[in-house]
Amino acid sequence: MLGWALLLLWRALLLRCPRCGKGKIYRRGYTMHEACPVCGWRFEREEGYWTGAMAVNLVATELVIVAVIFPLAVSGAPAAPMLIIGLPATVLLPILGYRHSKSFWMTIDFLLNPTPEMFNY
Predict the structure, then answer these.
(1) CA distances (Å), origin 24, targets 38, 60, 63, 68
(2) In a 10 Å sphere around its CB, with 0-12 CB exposed, 13-18 middle and 19+ buried, how is residue 11 labelled?
(3) Nearest Cα to 121, choosing from 12, 29, 4?
(4) pTM of the model
(5) Which residues contact 67 (CB under 8 A, 6 or more apart)?
(6) Phi and psi of 28, rounded to 5°?
(7) Which pLDDT value is given to residue 121?
(8) What does the pLDDT look like over 65-98, one tens digit per residue?
(9) Cα separation, 117 vs 82, whole angstroms
(10) Beta carbons within 10 angstroms of residue 74's beta carbon
(11) Residues with Cβ < 8 Å from 12, sequence gap 6 or more?
(12) What is the span of the domain harbouring residue 61?
């Protein structure tokens, strides 16, 4: 089971379909396919489905910012460098992580709610 989970997470990192691992999730830029071009698995399961992806994006952004800012604060660095790093990061990281947060959310959903045919791939 751990090997299967790692395989699915690898697919998420590569922005591939969690079900087959072959189809691309995005056409170009931030435009998603409605379903996998290879296996036909629908990406958006229901209305409000991407709320979880927003949570994944938020948590990942906060963890990165804390990992950078907290050591600076503990070491007694002046506030200016922390603001210069922290403020742009709070805007840029969610934008840069948007595509991957959707991919990881689909993978988490796929791990928690497996379908019988998923083991055929």
Answers:
(1) 8, 23, 27, 32
(2) buried
(3) 4
(4) 0.83
(5) none
(6) -165, 150
(7) 55
(8) 999 999 989 999 899 989 998 999 999 999 999 9
(9) 49
(10) 8
(11) 18, 100, 103, 104, 106, 107
(12) 2-120
What tokens appear for 13 in the block? 């990192």
Backbone angles phi, psi at 54, to 5 degrees: -65, -40
Q: What percent of the chain lies above the pLDDT cut of 90?
A: 67
Mean predicted confidence (pLDDT) in 13-39: 94
Look up residue 4 and give its two tokens: 């299967």
Of 1, 33, 3, give the one whose Cα is nearest residue 16: 33
Q: Which residues contact 33 (CB under 8 A, 6 or more apart)?
A: 23, 24, 25, 26, 27, 43
Domain count of the chain?
Answer: 1
3-state per-residue secondary structure call for 44-73: CCCCCCCHHHHHHHHHHHHHHHHHHHHHHH
Residue 33 near residue 43 (C-beta atoms within 8 A): yes
d(CA 19, CA 39): 8
